[in-house]
Amino acid sequence: xxxxxxxRYSRHILLEAIGIEGQQRLLDAHALVIGAGxxxxxxLLYLGTAGVGRLTVVDHDVVDLTNLQRQVIHEMAGVGMPKxxxxxxxxxxxxxxxxxxxxxxxxxxxxxxxxxxxxDVVLDCSDNFATRHAVNRAxxxxxxxxxxxxxxxxxxxxSVYDTRDAASPCYACLFPEEAxxxxxxxxxxxxxxxxxxxxxxMQAAEALKLLTGTGESLAGRxxxxxxxxxxxxxxxxxxxxxxxxxxxxxx
Length: 251
Description:
By secondary structure, this protein is of the alpha/beta class. The protein has a single domain, classed as NAD(P)-binding Rossmann-like Domain (Rossmann fold). Helices cover 39% and strands 18% of the residues. It has 11 helices and 8 strands. It has helices at 3-8, 10-13, 19-27, 40-50, 83-94, 109-117, 129-142, 171-174, 186-189, 193-212, 244-248; strands at 30-34, 54-58, 99-103, 121-124, 146-152, 155-161, 221-226, 231-236. Strand 4 (121-124), helix 7 (129-142) and strand 5 (146-152) form a beta-alpha-beta unit. Helix 4 runs parallel beside helix 5, helix 4 packs parallel to helix 10 (193-212) and helix 6 (109-117) crosses helix 7. The radius of gyration is 17 Å and the shape is globular. The termini are far apart.
């Protein structure tokens, strides 16, 4: 670790639970972030400032004026620019030591299989069930921990699906692929701006904890936030023996 890195990350290094060894793990780590929108914005910013050495961000969309109400990694000058490139530029401006791979694409199952295989942790910051299920399948197959968040209107949720633990559920254990869940989008339902900041920041925190081996993750627990009352509810999650994804992954 260089003198500049020791200074930049000094507040992490001062934490006994992280220290120099933990910070070095972050510098050596590779995080894959799916989505550079409302959730991906704070998640990417905190992963970048915390010193995660390699970030791969995947997003097919471009920055729109309506995004700037909540997608804090983007700015007016970036309107019309691919979100992945806009996010990469912002991270580089804050921490040029981080290597950012910006992929302007909608990753399908085959592509996700390739991307997840080389990541140490995956953050699902997407906004639709099809992508979430595809990401979950790849993570379950390759035993890569998944930090999943969601936010709509005033309601948010977050959990960790860590299939390295045989007893840990995957995303499909909670939301089966065959179930008919209503697809809701903030473009039609709205979303409270700070809510995505709260959930996205928590996704970054869970990812950093996983990478440094610090504390206890949210694996096996789903936390839900009612932003109007500012009240958290937590439920315990269990692996389903009849989960098709877990079975396909040989779990």
